[in-house]
Write a structure and sequence with these properties.
The chain is an alpha+beta fold. It folds into two domains: 7-287, no CATH class; 303-466, Sandwich (Immunoglobulin-like). 29% of the residues lie in helices and 29% in strands. The protein is built from 13 helices and 20 strands. The strands form four sheets. The protein has a six-stranded mixed beta sheet, with helices on both faces. It has a six-stranded mixed beta sheet with strand order 14-15-12-9-17-20, with no helix packed on it. Strands 13-16-11-10-18-19 form a six-stranded mixed beta sheet, with no helix packed on it. A hairpin with a 4-residue loop joins β14 and β15 (393-402). α1 runs antiparallel to α10 (237-251), α2 (41-50) packs antiparallel against α3 and α7 (186-194) runs antiparallel to α11. The longest helix has 19 residues, at 11-29. The relative contact order is 0.12.
Length: 472
C-alpha cells in the first residue's frame, strides 16, 4: 500500500470501518459523533498520478478521494445511508443472512447517528404478502418474502432495491442516497489490527475467533423460549463494551496504513459493497468493482462463471464449510463444454446449536445460451435452468447436502454458446460475497494442447489463455 495513503485520505475507509464495526459496535456508535480530519485531497490526487502505482490502485485511490470530497463537505447537507449487516456464517447470495440493518447519517464530515434495528422487528410490520423465490418456500417453508431474506440476488444493486422496497413496506420513512453491505467476517480482521481484546466476564476476542465467539456469547445462552425480553436485550451489553475497546484501540493506532489496507481489502473481496443513487458516484464504485454487481456486459466472445450458494439450513454452518472450484473447458468436442466441480469440505466434527449438515441451494451463472448436459450432475439435486436478461446469463440451480465431516465434490456439465472459442480464450470468474478465499483450477483443452492455471478467488478473477500464439 502506498505510504501517501494517510489520515486525510482514509476517511472513506474509516467510514467503512465504522460501519464494519457497527455490526457489533452499533450500541457504542449510536449517540457518539465521530469527526474525521480531511486535508490535502487535491494535492494527494495529483501526487498519486506521478507515483509508480498500478493503474487499478490509482483508480481506487481516486475513487476514495471522490467519496471523501463528496461526504465531507461542510455544506449542511445530511447524507443518509442504509447499512445492511450480513452474517456470512449463514451465507446468502448477497453475502450473508440479513439479521440487522442500520441507518447511518453523516453531515459535514461527522457521523450524526448510527441507529440499528433487528430485521425481525421491521418484518413484523410488513403486512403485504410477497411471494418468495421458490427455493425459500421449497426448502425453508417461507411463505412470505420479507426484508431479512431480501438479499437473494448475487448482484448487490438488486439487493439494495429489494431491501429498500421491504423497508418501505415496513413503514420506514428515510430516503437513502446510498447503501452499504457489510459481512460479519470483517470483525476478525479488525481484531487483526487492534490485537486481542479481553472483556471481563466473557473472555478474549482475537482475529481467529472474534465473530464466532461473540455470536456464542449473545446467542447460545438465550435460545430458550423462557428467556425474557429484558434478558435478551441485556445480552448485547458485551457488544457495547467490545465496541468501546475497539474504537479506543483504533483511535490510538500510529500506522493508519493498516486501516486503509483493511478497508481496501474488504472492498476488493466484497465483504463490503457500496451502492449510490447518484449516477456519477455509482459509476466510480462500479469502475473499481466495489458495487457487487453481476457483470452483465462481459464480452460475448469470452467465458463467464459465478457459483452462488444460499444456505437453506438456517444454521451458521458456513463457518465450517471450505470451498474449492475446478473448471474444465473442452474445445475438442462438437460443441464447447464446461464442467464445474464445486467441492464442499464440511470441517465441523459434530452438530450443535450452531451447525448441522450443510444444506445449500446453489446456482451457476454461465454465458447466456449455455445448455445443461442431461445426466451430468454429480451429488446434486435436480437441475433447473433459467435465463436472466438483466444479467445476460443462463442460470443453473440445484440443491446440495454436504454432511458434517465429509468432503463433497459436486457439479454439472453444460455446453457453451458458439461465440466462446478457444482462440485467446478469456474467462471472468466472479466471487460471491462472504465466501472467503476459494482455490481455483482452470483447465482449457484444445486440439493442440491443454492449458492449466491455478489461482485464489479472493476477488473477481480475470484469466486469459494465449492459445492463438501457441498455434502460430
Amino acid at each position: 500500500m502506498n505510504p501517501f495513503f494517510t489520515r486525510g485520505r482514509v476517511l472513506a475507509i474509516v467510514v467503512v470501518l465504522v460501519v464494519i464495526g457497527g455490526y457489533f459496535l452499533y450500541s457504542y456508535a449510536n449517540g457518539h459523533k465521530q469527526e474525521f480530519a480531511v486535508s490535502g485531497l487535491a494535492i494527494f490526487a495529483k501526487v498519486t498520478k506521478l507515483l509508480p502505482i498500478e493503474a487499478d490502485t490509482k483508480k481506487e485511490i481516486e475513487t476514495v478521494n471522490s467519496l471523501v470530497s463528496t461526504f465531507t463537505k461542510t455544506d449542511g447537507v445530511m447524507h443518509t445511508f442504509l447499512v445492511m449487516l450480513q452474517n456470512n456464517y449463514e451465507l446468502r447470495p448477497g453475502g450473508g443472512f440479513l439479521g440487522q440493518y442500520a441507518i447511518l447519517k453523516v453531515k459535514d464530515g461527522k457521523i450524526v447517528s448510527f441507529s440499528v434495528e433487528d430485521a425481525n422487528l421491521l418484518d413484523q410490520r410488513i403486512e403485504a404478502k410477497i411471494t418468495p423465490p421458490y427455493p425459500l418456500t421449497r426448502y425453508m417453508q417461507i411463505k412470505k418474502w420479507k426484508f431479512r431474506d431480501s438479499n437473494w440476488s448475487p448482484s448487490f444493486p438488486e439487493n439494495v432495491a429489494k431491501a429498500e422496497y421491504f423497508y418501505r413496506l415496513g413503514g420506514g420513512g428515510e430516503k437513502f442516497e446510498g447503501a452499504i453491505a457489510v459481512n460479519a467476517d470483517v470483525l476478525n480482521r479488525i481484531l487483526g489490527i487492534t490485537g486481542p481484546i479481553t472483556i471481563s466476564g466473557y473472555g478474549t476476542y482475537t482475529s481467529e475467533n472474534a465473530a464466532i465467539e461473540l455470536e456464542e456469547d449473545v446467542e447460545k445462552a438465550y435460545l430458550g423460549e423462557d428467556v425474557s425480553a429484558e434478558a435478551k436485550q441485556a445480552r448485547k451489553n458485551v457488544m457495547k463494551r467490545l465496541a468501546a475497546e475497539i474504537v479506543s484501540h483504533i483511535s490510538s493506532l500510529g500506522d493508519l496504513r493498516k486501516l486503509s489496507d483493511l478497508g481496501l481489502e474488504e472492498l476488493r473481496n466484497k465483504n463490503v459493497q457500496l451502492n449510490f443513487k447518484d449516477a456519477s458516484l455509482q459509476k466510480l464504485v462500479a469502475d473499481v468493482h466495489w458495487d457487487g454487481a453481476v457483470a452483465a456486459d462481459w464480452g460475448a466472445d469470452k467465458d463467464y462463471l459465478m457459483v452462488v450458494d444460499a444456505n437453506v439450513g438456517a444454521l451458521k454452518s458456513d463457518y465450517y464449510v471450505k470451498r474449492s472450484l475446478d473448471y474444465v473447458v473442452d474445445f475438442t468436442q462438437e460443441k464447447p463444454t464446461a464442467t464445474v466441480t464445486y467441492t464442499y469440505d464440511h470441517t465441523a466434527t459434530r452438530g450443535d446449536w450452531r451447525t448441522s449438515d450443510y444444506h445449500t441451494y446453489a446456482r451457476i451463472l454461465a454465458p447466456k445460451g449455455s445448455v445443461y448436459v442431461e445426466g451430468t450432475r454429480v451429488k446434486t439435486g435436480g437441475v433447473s435452468t433459467a435465463e436472466s436478461a438483466d444479467w445476460n446469463k443462463t442460470v443453473f440451480g440445484y440443491k446440495v447436502d454436504a454432511l458434517i465431516g465429509t468432503t463433497l465434490p459436486t457439479g454439472i456439465t453444460y455446453t457453451l454458446p458458439s461465440t466462446v472459442t478457444a482462440d485467446n480464450y478469456g474467462l471472468l470468474i466472479q466471487k460471491q460475497s462472504g465466501t472467503g478465499t476459494i482455490p481455483v483450477t482452470v483447465t482449457v483443452r484444445t486440439a493442440e494442447k491443454e492449458y492449466v492455471q491455478t489461482a485464489d478467488l479472493k476477488k473477481d478473477l480475470r484469466l486469459s489463455f494465449q492459445t492463438t500464439e501457441e498455434k502460430q
